[in-house]
UniProtKB/TrEMBL annotation:
This is Carbohydrate ABC transporter permease. It is found in: Cell membrane. InterPro entries: MetI-like, MetI-like_sf. GO terms for biological process: transmembrane transport. The keyword Transmembrane helix applies. The keyword Zinc does not apply. Pfam families: BPD_transp_1. One of its GO terms (cellular component) is plasma membrane. It comes from the Bacteria. Residues 66-266 form the ABC transmembrane type-1 domain.
Length: 281
């Protein structure tokens, strides 16, 4: 049996090599100029001059782009998770009293997963345009206009995870807490929130990565480069550095590294949350 377990590492190692090859190859190519990339793309770079990264970093204003993505992520992810938590708690507890109403709202929220964002882009554009006439920060070409859209966009998937997790919590625990004098909000945040922490952690990570990498809505609502998020900047680099693939690759590598580090740091949380939800579901 131990020999069989060791054999599993062979295909796993091959998969890791195949998955990491594009990133490693792109990293090596980023130290070459455009001509060298086309004439000799396979060989190692002549030198690892990180000054090239510094120059690209300054030219592309990555600090501004990171700040924009960070602002949108920090505002939209907690807001969306709060909405999901409150709605999931209501649906899960309605299941104990009015089952048909609980099922109705549950599937109503889940129906949002069936709607492709591309289909509603036109509607979002006009809604944002008219909203901006009354509330300027939520109008077109404003970072803050993305916040309510991103927060609402994560509700269907978050409801799917939260409701099944909350339904697995015994109602007797909440009743005992209420008898001891705990308020409704105390029950929600001292019992349900704590017991759902693995699922909450996983959803937080998925939400951060989803908002950080979102492109269609941002490309529709933002026009000014100074308001661009990182995914929009990548599309801009494609046209800006159309003849300088070295600069394009360096910009892409610098944008990808924080996401890779984030995923590596929190990968245990992701696995724990998904496994916990799978067992409860």
């Amino acid at each position: 049996m131990p020999k069989v377990n060791k054999l599993i590492y062979i295909p796993a190692g091959l998969i890791i090599i195949l998955m990491s090859f594009p990133f490693v190859w792109g990293f090596l190519l980023s130290f070459k100029d455009g001509i060298e990339i086309f004439t000799d793309p396979i060989s190692l770079p002549r030198s690892f001059n990180f000054r090239l990264y510094i120059d690209t970093y300054k030219e592309s204003h990555l600090v501004l782009l990171f700040k924009n993505s960070l602002i949108v992520t920090v505002l939209s992810v907690p807001l969306g998770m709060l909405f999901v938590f409150l709605s999931a708690f209501s649906i899960a507890r309605l299941d104990q009293k009015i089952k048909w109403m609980s099922s109705f709202y549950y599937y109503l929220f889940l129906s949002g997963m069936c709607v492709n964002i591309i289909i509603i882009l036109r509607s979002l554009y006009f809604i944002t345009m008219y909203t901006g006439k009354n509330v300027a920060p939520l109008g077109l070409d404003s970072l803050y206009s993305l916040v309510p859209i991103y927060a609402a966009g994560g509700i269907p998937f978050g409801t799917l995870l939260y409701v099944s997790a909350m339904r697995s919590i015994p109602i007797e625990m909440e009743e005992a807490a209420i008898i001891d004098g705990c308020s409704l909000f105390g029950v929600m945040f001292r019992i349900n929130f704590v017991l759902c922490m693995p699922v909450i952690s996983a959803l937080f990570i998925f939400s951060v990565l989803g908002v950080w990498n979102e492109f269609p809505v941002a490309s529709m609502l933002l026009n000014n480069y100074h308001n661009y998020t990182l995914p929009l900047a990548l599309a801009f680099f494609k046209s800006e550095f159309s003849r300088d693939y070295g600069s394009m690759l360096r910009a892409i590598i610098m944008i990808l590294i924080p996401q890779l580090l984030f995923f590596i740091i929190f990968q245990k949380r992701i696995i724990d949350g998904v496994v916990t939800e799978g067992i409860k579901g």
